[in-house]
Known about the structure:
312 residues; alpha/beta; TIM Barrel; three-stranded antiparallel β-sheet; 32% helix; binds S-adenosylmethionine
Amino acid sequence: MKRDKGRLIDAYGREIRSLRFSLTSRCTLNCIYCHHEGEGREKKDKKEISAELVIAIARVASAHFGIRKIKITGGEPLMRTDLAEIVRGMRAFEDDISVTTNGVFLSKYAADLADAGLDRANVSLDSLKEERYDSITRAKNNLPRVIEGIYSAIDAGLTPIKLNMVLLKGINDDEIGDMMRFVRECNKRGDGGAVILQPIELIPTFNPPMAQYKADFGKIEDELKSKASKIKTRRLQRRKKYFVDGVEVEVVHPIDNTEFCANCSRLRITSDGQLKACLLRDDNLVPVESADEEHIINQLKLAMKYREPFFR
Ligand code: SAM
């Protein structure tokens, strides 16, 4: 493959630094707030992007545009039986490969995925209370498996593991303390700092009635601030990290939507193989129809023309 030192930068000066692949729209759970990565609900007849195409897009983005950071998501990405093959196929030209999973199948696959070259796992965990967990995920009896999955991921070295907790007012926003205790316990198992708690602000765009459950992040951050021994701000997304009694809490809460968009440095690829310039729009998708290098380069450049901040 020929290489050049191009970069993918849109008309607003935003450079693409990571690819976020959705590998399937299928999921084992059915979370009440899910944005489905902006793809809509599972469509049974939808053809899923092939492993070959995923690897080809990643390879071209790395070789031609210096993008060496990959996030794999879904649907539930661990439902793809070729996930380890995909990770293995892109390992040689990536710096950082992580997966976002609901954790239900993680205990089964963590060691294989680590062996294939996966660096890290983010695990969604909105509650440690079984009844609550079941009603948020609209499924039954999965919480013990998810917790086992987190332990397996620690043991396999898929660290740091971020626990994604979408905070929902009146539903789980009283559980941050319990989650921090759980993280502390997990870290005794791993080499300290193996697990990070990541409270996430709800994006209600795809399900407007959920807006009433948006938690009060101002209050939550004030509390973390008062307890933290150290506070850091991540440069790129300006996310705050609080260190409280040995537990790292990274808050995913854009100060406002404009800032959320201004800092966007990711390009999405849908589960049926289309480049998606924005989580919140699907009227400007760019299909990738073959693994041909020139075709992928052209489609990546075309997707850049469609990129504009949703909020500005
Ligand atoms: N099934 C996997 C999982 O549960 O992590 C991957 C797909 S899920 C769509 C990816 C992430 O998006 C999860 O961490 C989830 O919590 C987050 N998410 C989904 N809907 C959201 C929403 N409306 N607002 C904020 N985050 C959301």
